[in-house]
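Query structure, 739 tokens:
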């Protein structure tokens, strides 16, 4: 369709008024034509053709100039080679070795393959922002293809995963697939299961060319009103997609579909890189700052001063889009807009806002660092996007290299840890052959002692759950006290004076934003403190479990027989199967490589997961709680800002009047209860995760006893020697993994 606006701006270099005058129509008529999704009337096209000396055919074929796609070095090639080499080795050599070890190590093989598939994954670049900020146009520009629907109205309303054509599974023949929305609005189609044909077909709604996105994924589409579509995947031959996946997220704050905001908040949590877009004409105003702060809170920390050379916040891009519309793209005007936007953002942040990220990365986050992540963008003027394109190019070329090296280290550590487990198994098998009588006696004692041990363990388990519930109660109580201190007239007046807020709409919005960030930080600190206590209690629970199964607990002396059973690994493997972790994410983050895998299994990027485990200390708790309350805080901030924005301030004593109004709004919107519900949900998730992990530990222990009893009771030396040989062969198999 003829793009009148682009033709006028790029070819004629005219304002709407000038153009309207030349073709003999009103300016508001030109404005409507440029905003319309319908074809331009023929009589208007004739006038334009006569005025410009252009043929009708040339006008109809005119397309908006599209920037050249980014030229990206294919650095993912090495990581992909590492992945394919390991997986091929597992599949091909595993079959040959399996004839020697039987089914005993199928679980290890499956676990190793799963870990390799998860950790060696392309980084994900998420595009976020209010509707109609130009997300789809930016994506089309960087991938060099008009695949995403664009319009003057808010368009994309589903989460679209954009992948390279070579990443398309064999079973998908079409260019794009549409997937159903989730029944509960929370757990939808899982992009990480793209290679699972049965799973994806069960979620498939439709398939076809890229045009199918217009039908299901835009507000003008024929199928939009059905609300059936929740996600889509499209495969494109593009240089940048060789190194990363791009995710186009629904626009924030459209108001007509609450599920759009829900999908966006959830999907961006798993992004490695975040591009946040705000229209240059209203840059970082109103709700934009709230959405950006929530996005920063949940953004994976991939920089680590000890582990890589990535700059602080190198995976955050704050974009002033449509930059050509501000003073004709004047660089000085745009620099002022970026400076002011960054200052407004920082004005809403308590000093401790960046402490969470500092604990994980080791970097300081000051104005200069944060300002360096602000960029301009437009497809119309190259110089206004060149800095952004340079930075995104550097990052998407660097990340695959880091992922490749980290993944190799990750697999090496897995091989080492599993080798230790094999050595323990071999030692146990040899001991059974050498001291069968002791093991027979030991098994009798285990069976005799098991009811008592299980009962005592159950009591410890219930005590720990009781402790978690006490933490929940204490967290709510402590936060209520902090809330009362912050949401008070005197405190708010003091904040106004300390921060120098003025009696104007913009400052009042910043004040509310600052108050909300202060409350969120208070909540996070409380949860971090209790998560630290929880880690110690989990460690003690596992130590007590370990102690309860030692041979020296029994009434008969069987010597110091050590079991090959790994308590911590069994508990951690069970935790990986939990839907959410709550405070147990802190414990997982303290477990080094093992914990990193647990976090990766839940969608945390490998870079972030390893960064957390390397940082240690309170970094795990920081990562676990950094996004807690994000949607709650965001909702409260937007509601309070909307209410306060219409409040008329009198000249005298306006600070106190405003403070009273803010307190009243927090009370009327029951904000304390909303925070309370968020805190309680955190600890409910913690209890559920603990139960899942503890159940898995109990099940693994029972299975271990059964296997031990089978070996001892049958006492077939040939079978046991075969198990020894199988364990040794499995070690050889692991040592042969190409890295």
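Result returned for the query:
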């Amino acid at each position: 369709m003829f793009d009148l606006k682009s033709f006028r701006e790029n070819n004629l270099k005219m304002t709407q008024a000038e153009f309207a005058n030349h073709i003999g129509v009103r300016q508001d008529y030109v404005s409507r034509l440029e905003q319309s999704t319908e074809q331009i009337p023929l009589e208007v096209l004739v006038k334009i053709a006569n005025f410009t000396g252009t043929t009708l055919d040339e006008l109809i074929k005119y397309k908006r100039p599209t920037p050249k796609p980014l030229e990206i070095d294919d650095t993912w090639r090495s990581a992909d080679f590492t992945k394919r080499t390991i997986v091929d080795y597992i599949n091909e050599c595993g079959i040959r070795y399996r004839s020697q070890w039987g089914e005993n190590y199928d679980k290890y093989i499956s676990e190793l393959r799963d870990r390799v598939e998860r950790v060696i994954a392309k980084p994900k670049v998420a595009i976020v922002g209010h509707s109609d900020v130009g997300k789809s146009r930016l994506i089309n520009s960087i991938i060099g293809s008009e695949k995403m629907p664009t319009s003057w109205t808010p368009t994309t309303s589903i989460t679209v995963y954009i992948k390279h054509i070579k990443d398309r599974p064999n079973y998908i023949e079409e260019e794009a697939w549409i997937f159903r929305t989730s029944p509960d609005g929370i757990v939808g189609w899982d992009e990480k299961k793209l290679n699972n044909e049965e799973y994806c077909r069960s979620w498939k709604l439709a398939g076809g060319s890229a045009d199918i996105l217009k039908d299901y994924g835009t507000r003008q589409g024929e199928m939009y009103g059905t609300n059936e579509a929740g996600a889509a995947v499209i495969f494109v031959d593009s240089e940048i997609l060789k190194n990363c996946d791009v995710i186009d997220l629904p626009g924030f704050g459209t108001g007509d579909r609450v599920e759009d905001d829900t999908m966006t908040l959830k999907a961006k949590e798993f992004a490695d890189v975040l591009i946040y877009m705000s229209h240059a004409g209203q840059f970082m105003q109103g709700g934009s700052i709230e959405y950006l702060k929530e996005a920063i809170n949940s953004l994976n920390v991939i920089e680590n001063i000890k582990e890589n050379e990535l700059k602080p916040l190198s995976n955050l891009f704050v974009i002033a889009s449509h930059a050509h519309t501000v003073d004709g793209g004047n660089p000085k005007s745009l620099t002022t807009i970026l400076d002011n936007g960054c200052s407004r953002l920082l004005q809403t942040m308590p000093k401790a806002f960046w402490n969470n990220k500092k604990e994980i990365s080791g970097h300081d986050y000051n104005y200069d660092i944060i300002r360096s992540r602000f960029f301009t963008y437009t497809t119309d003027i190259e110089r206004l996007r060149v800095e952004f394109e340079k930075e995104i190019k550097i990052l998407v070329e660097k990340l695959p290299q880091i992922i490749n090296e980290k993944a190799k280290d990750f697999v090496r550590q897995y091989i080492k840890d599993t080798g230790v487990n094999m050595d323990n198994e071999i030692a146990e098998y040899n001991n059974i052959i050498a001291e069968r009588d002791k093991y027979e006696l030991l098994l009798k004692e285990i069976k005799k002692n098991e009811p008592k041990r299980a009962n005592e363990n159950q009591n410890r388990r219930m005590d720990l759950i009781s402790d978690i519930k006490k933490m929940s109660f204490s967290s709510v109580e402590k936060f209520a006290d902090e809330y009362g201190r912050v949401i008070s007239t005197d405190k708010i007046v003091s904040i106004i004076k300390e921060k120098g807020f003025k009696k104007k709409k913009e400052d009042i919005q910043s004040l509310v934003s600052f108050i909300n960030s202060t409350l969120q930080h208070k909540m996070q600190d409380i949860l971090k403190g209790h998560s630290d206590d929880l880690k110690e209690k989990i460690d003690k629970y596992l130590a007590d479990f370990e102690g309860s199964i030692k041979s020296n607990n029994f009434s008969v002396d069987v010597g110091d027989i050590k079991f090959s059973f790994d308590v911590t690994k069994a508990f951690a493997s069970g935790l990986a199967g939990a839907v959410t972790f709550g405070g147990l994410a802190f414990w997982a983050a303290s477990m080094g490589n093992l914990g990193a895998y647990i976090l990766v299994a839940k969608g945390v990027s490998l870079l972030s997961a390893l960064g957390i485990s390397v940082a240690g200390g309170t970094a795990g708790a920081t990562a676990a709680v950094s996004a807690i309350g994000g949607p709650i805080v965001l909702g409260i901030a937007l509601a309070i800002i909307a209410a306060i924005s219409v409040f008329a301030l009198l000249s005298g004593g306006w600070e106190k009047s405003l403070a009273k109004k803010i307190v009243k709004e927090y009370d009327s919107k029951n904000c304390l209860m909303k925070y309370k519900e968020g805190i309680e949900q955190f600890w409910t998730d913690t209890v559920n995760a603990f139960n899942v992990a503890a159940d898995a530990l109990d099940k693994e222990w029972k299975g271990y006893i059964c296997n031990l009893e089978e070996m001892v009771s049958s006492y077939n030396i040939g079978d046991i020697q075969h198990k020894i040989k199988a364990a040794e062969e499995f070690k050889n198999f692991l040592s042969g993994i190409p890295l």
